Amino acid sequence: MSLLPYLIAGWIFLVGVHGMATSRNLIHAVGCLAVTQSSTYVLLLSVGYRKGATAPVFSDVPTSVPVVDPVVQALALTDVVVGATVTALLLALVVQTAKRHGTVDPDELSGLKG
Which of 43, 73, 77, 97 is least buried, going by the fewest C-beta atoms within 10 A? Predict the structure, then answer.
């Protein structure tokens, strides 16, 4: 078992978090959040990887052959769908914020009035 995929997932996560923390643009912050989300794909795929294993299709695979865990693959696919949905929702909110306030800089946004 190699430590490299876990280190890559951690590095991608840290790059995304650093981008979110230093961003002065809401669109850039949403993109950095998507990068942070993609680190979970790498992490899930590295958890589910088995050397020498085949796809989890059991109709033609002998019982002695190791197979990859299909639950981890399903979680990664679900993670992709949730990440795309969250990104689309946040970008829609950024567009509405730009229409209403005329800026996407978080420092220039006024407080809520109500």
Answer: 77
CA separation for the pair 50, 22 (Å, rounded): 37
H/E segment holding residue 7: helix 4-22
Look up residue 48 and give its two tokens.
């589910």
Position 77 in a domain: yes
The CA-based angle 26-29-31, given to 5 degrees, is: 115
- Whether residue 46 is contained in a domain is answered as yes
Per-residue DSSP letter, 5: H
Q: Whole domain around residue 19: which residue ranges?
A: 4-50+67-105
- For residue 35, count CB atoms less than 10 angstroms from its CB and return exposed for 0-12, middle for 13-18, buried for 19 or more: middle
Q: What are phi and psi of 62, to 5 degrees?
A: -65, 155
Q: How far is CA 48 from the centre of its chain?
A: 17
